[in-house]
## 1
Amino acid sequence: MNALSQYIQLYQEYRKDIEAHSPALLNRYRPTALADLMQARFPEKGDEGYPALSVNKMFEPDYGVNINRVPFGVNAAESFRCGVPNISTLLALVVNDAFVPTAGLERNLPKGVEVMSLAKAAELLPDQVGKYYNTLALPRRGATAPAALNSLLVEDGVFVHVAKGVKLDKPLQIVNISNASAPFLAIRRLLIVLDEDAEASILLCDHSASQEVKYLNCQVAEVFLEPGAKLGYYEIEESSAHTSRHSQFFASQAERSTLILNGTSLIGGVAQNDYSVEHIGHHADTKLTGMVIADGEESVGNSTLVLHNHPQCHSDQSFKYILDDRSQGSFYGRIIVDEKAKFTKAYQSNRNILASADARMHTRPQLEIYCDEVKCSHGATVGQLDANALFYMRQRGIPEAEAKMMLMQAFMGDVIDTVEIPALRSRLHQLVEARLSGNRQLCADCQNC
């Protein structure tokens, strides 16, 4: 039986409660989401784009859902103290799927920047939120059943708006903490809008309060970049072996806009990250990168869809995996160049290292080009560490374990270097080194990790 039926039944049984705890704007889209889900199913292992992971199995367990918005008592200052060394951020906290204002956030936001609960924004700014909400998470942009489920059950999230010409001088750090004593499903939603010539950097960190409780995070992010806007969007997953994650990211880029996205999976259980970017104006620029370090029974999939619909746009994708033990990874990438998109430059690369005989990688990069005047390339490699380089280092007295560590760090270096926040870039180098050395407690100062 498809696991989706239990969530449809949940909504039908508790519809009045869900709508009573949500703003009218979010409720407006639930009937359409329900109709879509009645005709849908969760992808199974082996379906198109899911060679190693069953989304149906991911959603199958009986998770609790916070329909009545019962508050979870978390003190931001006590819950999250580690931060990123030498970097000053504007801190926002999301506990399960509820936005929790942190002390000083609103006071420290510059004029023209809004960061607030999505439910609150839907009530206070209905015209602005209504213009963008739920307009990108659509099937033609790669949305699957979990995105519709998110629209069906979502009651809160995060709304970020940066006004025309405003440049956010500090990164906004959104810390997602899974915190429940029983299996829990968090329905997370992000709506990010950067007006013309606005700039911002956003860092999202995923953590789990318990290493034993099963958590499932169902996240949808919709991002709108108006002409000339620039966004750096960075995600770091450091959760637990019992935490599952299904994340779908949708971006619309107007002319001259820039999107830099880096997704890092360091610790988790089962994860699927889908990225969809559409160029709706000329000279849009997209840099889409990701890295995965997995071992044990972990399974991490990344899929990308970049739609080049206008001339003279550029996209560059680079995803790298290091897989050990019986872990599995997958990369499913698509670039579609429309017949009108002359002088497009689009590149896609997926490189992978299998550190054990039992690790598995599934990769399928794709190009669909309907225009002649373009420069495009794609490719994938799956292999082991360079034996000649390893031999060279051993000959110079470097122990084998240390030599392997150095080679794997160097392998991930160019992905980390796409991060434009210097302190975060330095921190990622440290986290990757710690993770490759077998350390699974990367945020030692954080009480919730």
## 2
Amino acid sequence: MQGMADLLLRNVRLATLAGGVRRGAAMNDLALRDGVDVRIVDGRIAEIGPEVSGDGEDCGGRLLTPGLIDVHTHLIFGGCRAGEFAHRCQGATYEQIAAAGGGIRSTLRQTAECDDLVAIGRKHLDWMLANGTTTLEAKSGYAMTSPGEIAILEAYRDLAEQGPQRIVPTLLGLHAVPVGMDREAWVAEVCDHLIPEVARRGLAKYVDAFVEQGYFTLDDARLLALAAGKAGLGMRLHVDQLTAGGGAELAVSLGASTADHLEQTGRAGIAALADSKTMPVLLPASVYALRKSKYPDARAMIDAGLPVVLATDFNPGSSPTPSLLFVMNLACVMMGMSPAEALSACTINAAASLGLDTGIGSIEVGKRADLVLWDADDPAQIAYWIGAPLVKRVWIGGSELRM
């Protein structure tokens, strides 16, 4: 990363996303400005206008957007599960693979064998940066021992200190039940010991749980919420992914910042979310990779006025993609979202779901200069081109990244 310097970008087509969180029809409003200049001073947006004075770089009318924000990732894990992918291509289900010893437990074994978690995370961060991601949430969850979970969160701390991306860490203590351990005992270990220690050391902003048949129950999530509240941590939840279990309503009742997945969420869950501050985070790449057909009902959510968020769910099993560009395309093709809605969901709405929208997620004077210059002049092209190298330049805090 180059050192921070003042910068003037001339002649850009600017998707500012100014004006705050987008809900309903407003998700189509990117607050576009054509042929403008953007001045960056001390890592922040200092001036936006048609004729900003000074020497600058002509961007040729290319599109400039806020950096993309990925709010649901499992950044650090050992190995991969390409063999399971091959089995799924031959018809095996996620549940069948898990029952045979694969799935999350396979990654637990491979992660335990890793001796450099930071190097793994760095590789994955580089993949994300090449796809325009400048801020991300990163979950633990692939250790299932208290020391192992702490080690992953410590790796996130080290990566965040090294930069360039901002990392928001989440303790996903209730991801799976450790082999040979009683579920209730593991929930007690996480709530009574792991959460207080993580909070004491400042290693996480949120806690999370996989609420699903065969994993963790609604009551387990309630115990987690109580422990998180005492420790001063927020909550995010994996809910309604494989079965309709009232997960959206649970997330609302617990005051969770987000309810993630929501493939099985129906009208009651959408209504509950609409009457709450809990934001829906949709993960279409996991539906695609698991060869399932039921995607979250994004259109119903947007029509109900929800501030929809999109994320990759980057992980080795059910969503092996670091690309929000691919996710945006899936959201448009498979969930009926417009390209503008998809971009809103990966910028200002994503920032709000992390409590960071006052500083990032849009291009406004005073905000941090996390920016992507695209090899495109139309925002729709970001979701339209599949696999094309559209990211031309990236800045984080006003410093350009060489990729």
